[in-house]
From TrEMBL:
<dbReference type="InterPro" id="IPR040632">
    <property type="entry name" value="Sulfotransfer_4"/>
</dbReference>
<dbReference type="InterPro" id="IPR027417">
    <property type="entry name" value="P-loop_NTPase"/>
</dbReference>
<dbReference type="GO" id="GO:0016787">
    <property type="term" value="F:hydrolase activity"/>
</dbReference>
<dbReference type="Pfam" id="PF17784">
    <property type="entry name" value="Sulfotransfer_4"/>
</dbReference>
<keyword id="KW-0378">Hydrolase</keyword>
<protein>
    <submittedName>
        <fullName>P-loop containing nucleoside triphosphate hydrolase protein</fullName>
    </submittedName>
</protein>
Length: 273
């Protein structure tokens, strides 16, 4: 008698691209009692998660110079998502891979008007990862403390957009957007796919997931949670940058103290002997 496969905890994959209301979807899925709903904002403080994402990008995107082509297993995805009953936001970058890794999960697809999506991506993602301030943190501060968050972020975005530079990513934006939604639709069996517009309120989502409308929203079924993702992300990034600077300063001071101590010892020995 063969042992049955263990049931995966990941039950819902919300695979609308980043900047398509993913924080609102995260809030909604949490209100529907899914445990540990994964969103990129939560990952900022988790260096182990970013190490996994870095490996996943290397395994997934052939345009990256670090591409390995080594298949990324469900067990490896479980290192990040294994305890999560639902995944949104950053998971969409690896949407096709997660559909294969979690074949029993239901897929929710939120699509935003392209022009509004691109404007948001440019302002909140491209400018956050490329530019003078981003270069300073990613290329100077993070190497000092051994952080891979910024480099992994860049790899994931360049991989998703099949680009080698941020300007090329911008040029590939519409093609990437259309390819993503086409691929998710083609890969997901119809009975496991919901194309969801938050403007339709709670009912379509709850019926698809087999959940009751949250008690606090009863009587307001036509509404849906709205989370200001841009503001939350800016706040989180600023907090993270402060932490990185503090850590880097401690490292610099510690290592700078070594030659200073050596000089002091040399000077003291010269005076005493």
């Amino acid at each position: 008698m063969t042992a049955s496969k263990p049931l995966r905890k990941t039950q819902v994959l919300s695979l609308g691209l980043p900047r398509t209301g993913t924080s609102s979807m995260c809030e909604a899925l949490t209100l529907l009692s899914y445990k540990d709903v994964y969103h990129g904002i939560k990952s900022i403080d988790s260096p182990t998660d970013w190490a996994v994402f870095s490996r996943a990008a290397d395994a997934t995107f052939p345009n990256l110079p670090t591409y390995t082509g080594k298949p990324f297993t469900t067990e490896e995805w479980d290192e990040v998502f294994g305890e999560c009953e639902a995944v949104t936001d950053i998971g969409s970058i690896f949407g096709p891979q997660l559909i294969e890794a979690y074949p029993d999960a239901k897929v929710v697809l939120v699509q935003r008007d392209y022009e509004r999506w691109y404007k948001s991506m440019d302002e909140q993602v491209f400018h956050a990862l490329w530019g003078r301030l981003a270069d300073f943190f990613i290329e100077t501060v993070e190497p000092i403390i051994g952080s891979v968050t910024g480099p992994a972020n860049r790899k994931m975005i360049l991989g998703l957009f099949r680009a080698s530079t941020v300007d090329e990513a911008r040029d590939h934006a519409r093609e990437t957007y259309e390819r993503h939604y086409k691929t998710i639709r083609e890969m997901t069996p119809p009975e496991r796919l919901l194309e969801f517009d938050p403007k339709d309120g709670w009912r379509p989502l709850c019926e698809f997931l087999g959940k009751d409308i949250p008690k606090e929203w009863v009587g307001r079924e036509g509404e849906f949670p709205h989370v200001n993702e841009a503001a939350a992300m800016r706040k989180k990034i600023m907090e993270q940058q402060f932490k990185l600077l503090k850590k880097a300063a401690n490292v610099v001071v510690r290592y700078a103290a070594l030659p200073a101590a050596a000089v002091a010892v040399w000077y003291t020995r010269g005076r005493l002997w």
